[in-house]
Request: fold
Amino acid sequence: MLFNPSEFTEHIKSLNKNQLKAISKLSRALNQFEQKESLIEETLDWVIKIVNAERGLFAKLNYSENKFELVAARNIEEENIGDLSKFSSGILQKTVVDKKALLYHDAQTSPDISKFESIHINKIKSIICVPIFKEKEIWGVILVDSSSNRQDFTQENLLFLEFFGNLVSLTLDKIIDLEKLSTEKLILENKLAENISIPEMIGNSRPMQKLTTMLSKVSKTDATVLILGESGTGKDLAAKAIHNLSSRKDKPFLAQFCGAIPDTLLESELFGYKKGAFTGAAADKKGLLEAAEGGTFFLDEIGDISNALQAKLLRVLENREIIRLGDTNVRKIDVRIITATNQDLQQLVKEGKFREDLFYRLNVFPIKIPTLRDRPGDVTLLANHFIENSEIAEKKLTPSAVRKLEGFTWPGNVRQLFNVIQRALILCEEDKVDADAIIWDEEDDFKIIGGSLKHIEKMVLIDRLEKYAGNKTTIADSLGVSVRWVQLKIKEWNLEK
Ligand SMILES: Nc1ncnc2c1ncn2[C@@H]1O[C@H](COP(=O)(O)OP(=O)(O)OP(=O)(O)O)[C@@H](O)[C@H]1O
Ligand SMILES: [Mg+2]
Reply:
């Protein structure tokens, strides 16, 4: 038995009010620590002051190497001491062996410890050493010492330090467990973000995996997001995905397209108005930003808004405040802002068409949506997805249709692919979608947006193979190349039907 209950009750009863108060305050103060570092540094300062020592040390025992590591060391001026060798290592080791607190008033002549060289080198006269236990093992040691004789190093203070050491080790246990848990939580959250799938966003390619991870991570924050990407890449989809993955998912997701809308109309939609603010304002009206309270607001095609509106939007982003048109009341809103554009905002800033301060407010977390030609592996996946979700779901793409789809540069991205598939489903016969049903606008044929020369060559060859039913001589003639070149390329790119 660790203690005798009746003796313990007697001890507690013998404590006076002030002593009990001190214990209560101490345990409450210790309970408030959430970080190992501050717990250790502050408790060390308390100990130094309570026993009136010159300096103190908190060292952690590294079991595997059987040596102490300095956690914190302070002097009476609360200055840090960065070197463990400034303390007596012999006495630290003795505490480990004895597994109990030690107190010496005349270290230099004490037969127990005067043999330690470190006692003489550091001119130590008085010393107290208290072990801190974690699960019955010594976790670390509190050591305080002085180069003069300290009468404050009393048996009572030794008892107090033992008690105090136990309280500190309990707090330490709690903090270490909490830290472990919070690290595990972080790791799990991070893993989860990597494996998350956004069902409505189709794509297995590396760029899409990166995008989903990014969307998932940013959705856990309230950061303003700027979605960049060509037309039809899925910017709207990404904005909705961020909202749906966030803690705001049960609150509204509202969107406003900002391109080609008269300024006053856009302003009244976003900010609302007061009765009489303009002709036709018959009653007070809440704006969309207010209506999205607690949720997310998506401003699409942000590059198109006027200078006046840019200034008003800056205010929303800086202070989360809005003023309805014709009103003087300032209203606070809690809305996460996501914006999107397919324009180069930085270029617009350079040209003086977009406010730089607003740009930086919007660009807190930019996310670029990959183009379809940057992820050719997803084309068939998407095409099949669109077919499966159509009314004529049982149709299958033929290998030549797949080749044609994969060989195209898709200037209109996923939206264009969707349209091409819808058209193909109407044009195709029976249960298969063949290459001749895959058609796009003539002028799109050779639209070159970032495609490599090889890619363009491949695209043109696929087109001619279709057009001339695989006749290599006619194809070579139409392209002004040799038949041999056509044969080589067909083999290299595996285009043989
Ligand atoms: N990864 C995807 N998976 C499935 N469908 C997608 C994907 N990306 C886009 N789409 C579909 O493509 C169409 C265009 O997407 P969206 O409207 O989000 O593009 P956008 O980038 O906002 O285009 P714009 O710049 O023209 O506004 C939509 O029908 C959308 O559902
Ligand atoms: Mg859009």
